[in-house]
Amino acid sequence: MSAAVLPELLTIRDFLRHAVSSFSAAKLSYGHGTTSPLDEAAFLILETLHLPVDDINPWLDAKLTTAERKKLGDIIRRRIETRQPAAYLTRRTYIHGVPFYVDERVIVPRSYIGELLFSDSLGELIKFPGEIASVLDLCTGGGSLVVLAAKTFPNARIDATDLSQDALAVARINLDDHGLANRVNLLQGDLFAPVEGRTYDLMIANPPYVPNAEVKAFPREYAHEPAMAHLGGADGLDIVRRILAEAPDYLNPGGGLLCEVGEGRDILLAEYPKLDFLWLDTEESEGEVFWLTREQLNSLR
Fold first, then answer.
1. Could you tell me if 259 and 289 are in contact, meaning their C-beta atoms sit under 8 angstroms apart?
2. How much is the pLDDT for 2?
3. What does the pLDDT average to over 247-276?
4. Structure letter (DSSP) for residue 283
5. Sequence ranges of the domains in the chain
6. What is the CATH number of domain 6-90?
7. Can you tell me the mean pLDDT for 2-9?
8. Hey, is 76 helix, strand or coil?
9. pLDDT digit string (tens) for 50-69?
């Protein structure tokens, strides 16, 4: 934002309008918690000013101090010049209203499983939350899903694995922030390798599932994220196939797997005709998360 423009922007409404116009002109890409220039601008403004991020309207006509105006001008400029996702600039994002620390060591969390953990549809598939005694989170990344799982299943022993030591360092920050460091075991390694011999009532997985060619063609915002957290092989489902093959050995009788696969539904249905996938929709997704029980997974053998 140029020094000439800044003195003319006095209120939050002024900055919101200017940011939306600037983001649109710069042809930014979205999808890291927001889907439009308006949502992106509102999030950046509210988070920078330490205001609740759910509604900008009560604050629109609030006049800003010189220091606040400078902060907003700087972060709007950085969003355009660096093409970093807004969450990397603010070091914070939200899933279902729950805040999480985030930086460039992990992808910006945006899993549909987060919504499902709060939904009635999941409750119809599993035991009463208090009866879930053990949970495994595969490919935990920055730990957002394992934090939500710990809050949803208060009596569960919870393990979370990831191949990236950097990602687990971010997950540790989020566990500390939410007071869950003593309830969740963070384990570095490839999928099930760190939990050999253990079994679980519930398994959740948001693995890399983007086809390699699509990762190479990512817009600049997505290219800021660690590639290994996206790369899923030629069709995106290499790691999902491994999970399907190995999961039964790590599930208790009656236990189940909740897994996100992006746009891989048709491929999985064609490749695994014997599996009775149950596809769980959310407000913003259709057919991107499936549920399978241990007994159903065993039918592959």
1. yes
2. 57
3. 94
4. S
5. 6-90, 105-300
6. 1.10.8
7. 70
8. helix
9. 999 999 999 999 999 999 99
